[in-house]
Amino acid sequence: MKAYFMMMGISLGMIMWQPVGLQAQPLPLREKPDSATYLTHILNARKWDQLFPNRYGKSRLGPHAADSGKHDFYTFAAFVAAARKFPGFLGQGSPQVRRRELAAFLAHVAQETSGGWDQAPGGYLKWGLYFRQEQGCTHGCAQYSVANASYPPLPGVSYHGRGPLQLSYNYMYGMFSEAWFGSKDSLLQHPEKLLQDSVLAFASAIWFWMTPVANKPSCHAVMTGQWIPSAADSAAGRLPGFGVTLNIINGGVECGHSPSAETLHRYDFYEYFCRQFHTDPGPNLMCTYQQPFSLHP
Predict the structure, then answer these.
(1) Residue 180 CB contacts under 8 Å (≥ 6 apart), including other chains
(2) Could you tell me if 175 and 157 are in contact, meaning their C-beta atoms sit under 8 angstroms apart?
(3) What letter would DSSP give residue 192?
(4) Which residue from 268, 280, 9 is spatially nearest to 127, judged by alpha carbons?
(5) From the candidates 31, 101, 112, 262, which is the catalytic residue?
(6) pLDDT digits (tens, 9 = 90+) for 70-106
(7) Which of 4, 138, 171, 289 is most buried, judged by most C-beta within 10 A?
(8) Largest CA distance in the chain
(9) Structure confidence by residue, pLDDT tens digits, 199-223
């Protein structure tokens, strides 16, 4: 039985490029005035429980079984609360486009945090949101501290992957901290806050999804058709579709070659969520023939 993969996530996807000339464009985190979000037009708490029955604090199997019933970390209510701060999230395009975007977002979230294995109870696809942080780094990983004048790492602080999309590296924590808290220091000093506050954890994932960084577009722009590939993008095989979102998140590891078992699981998650939300996956599902963005800084 192959269980409890070490997650690759954003952390590995960013190893291939250094934080030079960051071009992040944090969105204003203004909360929607009503309790509804575009998210709640597609998904509800009951469906959430069906999609993620083994999420952290709920599963009765594996290393977190003892935590079952103590603290349901990845609640639907926390996801909705975080989504209210990003009015553009799932807010553009036709109903089909919005459902497809949610399927893409959840596919990456599920694979980044998966605790599943091929013979897992209920199947691999029922084991998303199992982990809160990168396995193998629970006591810290120094490789995620890199030199950056704007967002310098603190000695002894680990910036390894945390949250639904495994936010990683000191500069990513610093940029998100500015957008959320208005100060880079809040998370540069205490990145572990993502493990303590489920709304903050979900917000880190949505922020990353919505924010273009360096030479990469945002995943949101790709899935809603706002991103127009340049001539260099087209020559590199980067065409609009789910495959480009994987290239953004983990292209240095998973794109430009035959897919690994983990990458195939990621595609499976996307198609699964598309079926659940009654939408089609759209074109350019895979990034097998795409050059990673990291090759074109």
Answers:
(1) 29, 186, 187, 200, 203, 204, 207
(2) no
(3) G
(4) 268
(5) 112
(6) 689 999 999 999 999 999 999 999 999 999 999 999 9
(7) 171
(8) 52
(9) 999 999 999 999 998 889 999 999 9
> Whole-number mean pLDDT of the chain?
88
Q: How long a stretch of residues is the chain?
A: 297
CA separation for the pair 222, 225 (Å, rounded): 5
pLDDT value for 217: 97
DSSP state of 114: -
Alpha carbons within 13 A on the beta-carbon side of 132? 23
Cross-strand pairs, 216: 213
C-alpha 106/C-alpha 273 separation (Å) is 7
Q: In whole angstroms, how large is the CA radius of gyration of the chain?
A: 18
Q: Which two tokens stand for residue 47?
A: 């469906």
Residue 136: closest CA among 124, 144, 146, 128? 144
Calpha distance 27→42 (Å, rounded): 23
- The answer to whether 112 and 164 are in contact (CB under 8 A) is yes
Distance CA 244, CA 250 (A): 10
Backbone angles phi, psi at 181, to 5 degrees: -100, -15
Annotated catalytic, 271?
A: no
Residue whose C-alpha is closest to residue 140's, from 152, 154, 129: 154
| 189's tokens | 């000093």
Span 37-43, mean pLDDT? 92
